[in-house]
């Protein structure tokens, strides 16, 4: 078990191949829809194509959403084709196979995503990729797949990592991602890009890159194995936390965790804060709005996860917010917005219920400034230009647009103070000085 670091390093010899694709795929956070949060395992071609049509008809495609992703449970569960060894789409739920769905999705001007796991079975227990990476990648390319989400379930015992890594939002872990010290604790300075987890994901990267088809690589190892430190050499995006749930506690907890890891985000590689829950569970409209604002500001992939046929218009409008989408998709500024002040808690406090409240980030159209109320009662939030890093040296009066209403607020001096509802966010695009 505890083979020496020397041996582990020899086995690794990583070939560094950043996922820079010729046609720009993966340079910006992916925008799309995925079946899981809406349908879980109860998925079929009809639902996927209905979602694709809603992406077009609700104007989401025009707003930039591109991918329509099939999550778990699309396969024949009992096994692979006995002759070819290939994975088999379920003939009942996907009667025209994955390629049939891909053709129809492509005909709408959209792209198709598919799902598997770097283990023996997917999370729902369907055949998965480990040991079959090359064959499966060529199958996906032949089917016309454009996006590959690669989960982390059912890892064989001989692929377990040598050391423990604790994701900070899991019980028992420390805020810096280390576990309480045991004999499974990694030595100081351990290079997690040599871990078995990294190797499992690198094998699939190489298999995807070997195909004559551009396939965006969405790595999903739940923040394990310090993925933020090596993800950019392996994939276009990497999940930095456990699964999101449709409630505010989960949204706030992921935001808090990611707020400490945003230095790993830039063009070509993005921390994935997990799929959007807008439209699901018991989020209030304010919470739906804050969830979207911060996922866009953190430059997470924005993957809608709800039944679009019943999504209320005010939620569709949140998903189409032009200011936030422009920030997410900025061609010139790759870095995300980051906290400049924590607010309720002292700066740099790691706190899952009350994350940083004051954030800013630069973009082509100006500085995006957000202020969140993490409290369970309405409270004033005071944005002061002199505290915002990209504004403080420039001046004290700026041209401001409200990102929720689109209202041009004109020239504003000093800053903005406003009462903010429970878990709501105020947001401004702060432009030229005036
Ligand atoms: C998919 O499920 C829906 C709802 O249950 C059903 O109406 C439709 O016929 C199903 N389509 C396929 C291809 O199984
Ligand atoms: C685990 O076992 C499989 C099958 O024997 C082998 O191909 C793979 O290389 C092993 N993994 C590691 C990390 O040794
Ligand atoms: C993580 O934090 C704990 C307690 O706050 C500390 O004892 C430990 O040294 C830290 N580990 C690293 C790698 O910084
Ligand atoms: C790769 O795909 C392109 C476009 O489909 C095709 O024109 C080209 O011949 C293919 N190249 C190889 C080596 O198969
Ligand atoms: C990720 O890799 C790309 C491509 O090499 C690079 O442009 C980008 O700056 C890297 N991201 C970070 C945070 O270093
Ligand atoms: C998180 O911050 C809130 C507000 O300051 C505080 O009441 C709570 O005790 C903190 N939680 C933890 C676990 O420290
Ligand atoms: C936010 O998301 C979902 C869905 O509609 C919730 O159930 C909640 O109702 C939404 N917020 C609203 C409408 O306030």
Automatic annotation (TrEMBL):
GO terms for molecular function: alpha-galactosidase activity. Its main location: secreted. Its EC number is 3.2.1.22. One of its GO terms (cellular component) is extracellular region. Keywords: Disulfide bond, Glycoprotein, Glycosidase, Hydrolase, Secreted, Signal. It is found in: Secreted. PROSITE patterns: ALPHA_GALACTOSIDASE. It catalyses: Hydrolysis of terminal, non-reducing alpha-D-galactose residues in alpha-D-galactosides, including galactose oligosaccharides, galactomannans and galactolipids. Hydrolyzes a variety of simple alpha-D-galactoside as well as more complex molecules such as oligosaccharides and polysaccharides. Belongs to the glycosyl hydrolase 27 family. This is Alpha-galactosidase. It comes from Oidiodendron maius (strain Zn).
């Amino acid at each position: 078990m505890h083979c020496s670091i020397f041996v582990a390093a020899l086995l690794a010899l990583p070939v560094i191949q950043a996922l820079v694709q010729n046609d720009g795929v993966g340079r910006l956070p992916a925008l799309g829809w995925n079946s899981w949060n809406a349908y879980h395992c109860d998925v079929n071609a009809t639902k996927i194509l209905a979602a694709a049509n809603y992406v077009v008809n609700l104007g989401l495609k025009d707003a930039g959403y591109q991918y329509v992703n099939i999550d778990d449970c699309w396969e024949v569960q009992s096994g692979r084709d006995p002759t070819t060894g290939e994975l088999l789409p379920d003939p009942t739920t996907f009667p025209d196979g994955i390629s049939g769905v891909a053709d129809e999705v492509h005909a709408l001007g959209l792209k198709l995503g598919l799902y598997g796991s770097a283990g023996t079975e997917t999370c729902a227990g369907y055949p998965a990729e480990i040991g079959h990476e090359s064959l499966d990648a060529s199958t996906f390319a032949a089917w016309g797949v454009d996006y590959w989400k690669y989960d982390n379930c059912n890892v064989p015992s001989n692929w377990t990592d040598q050391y423990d890594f604790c994701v900070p939002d899991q019980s028992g872990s420390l805020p810096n991602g280390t576990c309480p010290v045991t004999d499974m604790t990694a030595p100081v300075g351990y290079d997690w890009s040599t871990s078995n987890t990294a190797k499992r994901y690198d094998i699939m990267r190489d298999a995807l890159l070997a195909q004559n088809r551009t396939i965006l690589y969405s790595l999903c190892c739940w923040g394990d194995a310090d993925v933020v430190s090596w993800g950019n050499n392996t994939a276009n995006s990497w999940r930095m936390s456990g699964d999101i749930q449709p409630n505010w506690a989960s949204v706030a907890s992921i935001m808090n965790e990611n707020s400490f890891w945003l230095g790993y985000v830039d063009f070509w590689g993005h921390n994935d804060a997990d799929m959007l829950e807008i439209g699901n569970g018991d989020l209030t409209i304010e919470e739906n709005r804050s969830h979207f604002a911060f996922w866009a500001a953190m430059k997470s992939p924005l993957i809608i996860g709800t039944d679009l046929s019943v999504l209320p218009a005010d939620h569709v409008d949140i998903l189409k917010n032009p200011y936030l989408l422009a920030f997410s998709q900025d061609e010139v500024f790759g870095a995300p917005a980051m906290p400049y002040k924590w607010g309720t808690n002292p700066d740099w406090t790691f706190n899952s219920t009350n994350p940083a409240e004051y954030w800013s980030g630069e973009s082509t159209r100006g500085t995006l400034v957000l202020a969140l109320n993490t409290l369970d009662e309405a409270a004033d939030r005071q944005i002061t230009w002199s505290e915002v890093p990209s504004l403080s040296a420039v001046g004290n009066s700026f041209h401001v647009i409200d990102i929720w209403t689109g209202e041009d607020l004109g020239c504003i001096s000093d800053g903005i103070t406003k009462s903010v509802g429970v878990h709501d966010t105020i947001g401004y695009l702060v432009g030229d000085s005036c």
